[in-house]
Write the structure tokens for this entry.
Amino acid sequence: MGFIGFALWLGFAFFVASVAKNRGWSFGGFLALAIFLSPLVAGIIVALIGENRTVLEQQSILSGDFKKCPDCGELIKGDAVVCKYCGKNFSDKSLLSSTNAFDTNNYWYCSKCGSSNLDNYNWCKVCDTPRYTMSTISEEQRNLIKEYVEKQIQTSNFEDIRSFQKLYFGTSSLKYFTVMLPDANGYDDLVLYKEKLKEAISEPEIMEEEKHEENIIPENNVSDDLEEELEKLKNLYEKKLIDESEYKLKKSKLLGI
């Protein structure tokens, strides 16, 4: 194969890989297949397998162009107020609060602003509202978390507390425990830890009444050092290692508000 032939082979291989990427498949995987096997064979495979709808839907959701209705599961425009398939009304944020914490489609809706967030995010990427609160989890889950807290408060030593915590924190279906409750491994003071447990399940929930978005500044105006400090502060608060007032005070000082 001459230089021109190799260049054409490589060009077709890149074309097939690009088509595969646009259909939700791996660019690198199909590029390798096209180069080492044949662009024609790789192209036929791409045509036969069609689109990877799961990946394409996730890309559409992440871009903000689309969102998935939590009631019927259909993909609709990101700025849609009403689902055209089932009539779900997104303008009433109270409707979102019942589904935001336990969506099964790898993302969840913020109960405050309605934005969709990836499943591994525990705070809304738009308004910084926590994913799990006592007002967004179900009554059954509220009762379970209260029962857990009561048992921890009645326990008299950290060894038993941490053993009991490990059982709950290690269960995937109870991942909201690790977000809402303080980690006993971060405490040496038993009394303080139990106080933090009580605060974690107290109502009303944090940041529900304040206009939290007013304290948000554009990311491009935040220095790398400041962004790192804000992230560390958020992690401390998320793990219940600092209380609400301390979190707000330190964040305000960092932002110069």
